[in-house]
Amino acid sequence: MTGSPVGILPYSLIVGQEQLKRALELVFVVPAIGGVLVSGERGTAKSTTVRSFSWMAYGHFPVTLPINATDDRVLGGWNIDALMRGRTEREPGLLERAGETGMLYIDEVNLLDDHLVNIILDVASTGMLVVQREYIDEPGRQVSFTLVGTMNPEEGGLRPQLLDRFGLLVPITAELDVAQRKEILTTVLRYEEERLRPGSAWITMGAERDAEHRKWLLAAREAVRDVLLPPFAATLCAKIAAGFSVAGHRSEIVMAMAARACAALAGRTSVVPQDVLEAAPPALVHRRPEAAYGEGIAWTAKDRERLEAIVEES
């Protein structure tokens, strides 16, 4: 990867979206976390951030799954042109393409058919694509990719069972701070000018920062294998999950994985309370009873106080 392509702002130059960036980085370091779901209103640069991250981390734009995708498009099927010539030739689906490039991106995942969402989540979590359909019965194929979905909650939500399958969830809102909004505005306007200038020093600087950032992420991905989760940290994850009355045990498992990723990114060899404190919100927010009852997905100041109280008591 030698630079940023025309049409995409380098990841290192994106202003704001710190929670989304962090979630994407945690899942890159520990893919077993299980992907990221981004919930937020339109016009908040969700897609831009995901695409910029994919280019920085994988050297490719993400494979994007359209809302009207069919089973054949997702899982693969027979090449129609080959069939018309009397030959059987399999056409790889989007899941296999995502395995080759590193990321599968589903915009407006809440508008996708639940049947397809289930299939995609199964493949993302197991790393195995098994196709058993009419005229196709194949052995499993190993497929590994980072799954990222975005959705606008104003257009409808996902069933709790599907929400739970995403490792982390990041609620996104527009920036309210005037200075931050001004910086976003000036950055976008500058990029629109600079991208028309061949060899722009500003964009080149962003691409060079991206390359360094990728090295940092790759080093953390390697180092996380040796990061310890001490007994106190495991207990803390369990206490937090119980304290927020989440269903099942996926929240504390994801929390522990994300905490180890936080430690690796910080250059530590063991998880500390701050790692768990950071990992908890995106692991919990969509698994609480409030989300299951359709009361919206948001992490409030009261939630933060409740989390900090559990950590301080432990």
Automatic annotation (TrEMBL):
GO terms for molecular function: ATP binding; ATP hydrolysis activity. Residues 238-291 form the ChlI/MoxR AAA lid domain. InterPro entries: ATPase_dyneun-rel_AAA, ChlI/MoxR_AAA_lid, Mg-chelatase_DI-like, P-loop_NTPase. It comes from the Bacteria. Residues 36-166 form the ATPase dynein-related AAA domain. Pfam families: AAA_5 (PF07728), AAA_lid_2 (PF17863). This is Protoporphyrin IX magnesium-chelatase. It comes from Nonomuraea fuscirosea.
